[in-house]
Amino acid sequence: MKFSTRAIHIGEEPENTQHGDVVSPIHLSTTFAKKSIREVEEGYVYSRSGNPTRDSLERKLAALENAKYGLAFSSGLAAESTVLLALLKKGDHVIAFDDLYGGTKRLFNQVMERFGLEFTYVDARDFENVRRAIKENTRMIWLETPTNPLLKLADIKGISEIAQEKNVIVVVDNTFASPYFQNPLSLGADIVLHSATKYLGGHSDVVGGAIMVNDNELYEKLKFHQNAVGAILSPFDSWLVMRGIKTLAVRMEKHEKNAIKIAEYLEKHPLVEKVYYPGLPSHPQHELAKRQMRGFGGMLSFELKGGLEDAVKFVESLKIFALAESLGGVESLIELPAIMTHASIPKEEREKVGIKDSLIRVSVGIEDVEDLIEDLERGFEAVRR
Ligand code: PLP
User: Phi and psi at residue 342, in whole multiples of 5°?
Assistant: First the structure.
């Protein structure tokens, strides 16, 4: 089956339901009665350890990344925490891309370090930087590609080859690309992770997280910790994510079409200093993007000529773009990473990786692009005034 067919049908086979349901029912029961003590170990027992609706979603998640297994969590960060808790122990070292979602860095630096994990941040655009950072106690390489908010890319295949030599696990946060445009497991990564809050859900109405893996041993450890740590996705939220996934392909096509038009418009604009979008030939890693992705996605960032004040004027004057954190929904969102999504990273560190105060991040929605461009024009007018 091809992508959309898998996204629609896997996990929701009518023949597997009691009444031939075309859509997976929402199983709210927290516990499951058995006919005899002998049956206690069989089937569903308690909804934290396993739930039919979550199971449907987990099979669908696996199908999206061509993976053997999928696991659903209560948020992207819950999925991230579970990966670290399941696979690492005190004294272990993690190499991470230096441009990561601010909340991921906060989890690493302000929570996991307290439990004895060690993190080194490198510019993973050059995989030699990753190779050089590997130490005796390195157990994991953590990548986001494209990154949030600067749309930097890491060569998943190149880095996975280095990691394999050293027996190091490669985790790729694939939230920005979505499984429609990129499949890290096929490029050699061990674990793929998503904030399902974003493109998978797609409608800004559910917070969730996902992990996909092929390796049986990794899966067993992650599955054990999904139950033992307990950060599971609820049946209703599982159903919402499943509903979103069915239209992932058509949404991603439109997100990208709109994003390309907007990136080209911004690149020509006299008040714009720089545009970050892997689909632009001017992006320094455009060739890598073409090689490892099937499309460039709906996320872009740009720097205004001017400072924070101009950026604030710009975003506050828009009428269609909502001034809001998050991304990947059908509606266009705009935000200032320096004071919103990435404010938890100290200013000095932000500037070191290139997140300036005038940086504006855009999650391009699937509205009519002419309306979106007209709205951005309103922002430039406000700056000019
Ligand atoms: N990874 C990326 C790339 C993100 O952008 C986010 C949230 O913005 C997360 C992970 C965390 O996901 P969640 O907000 O669902 O916990």
Answer: -115, 20
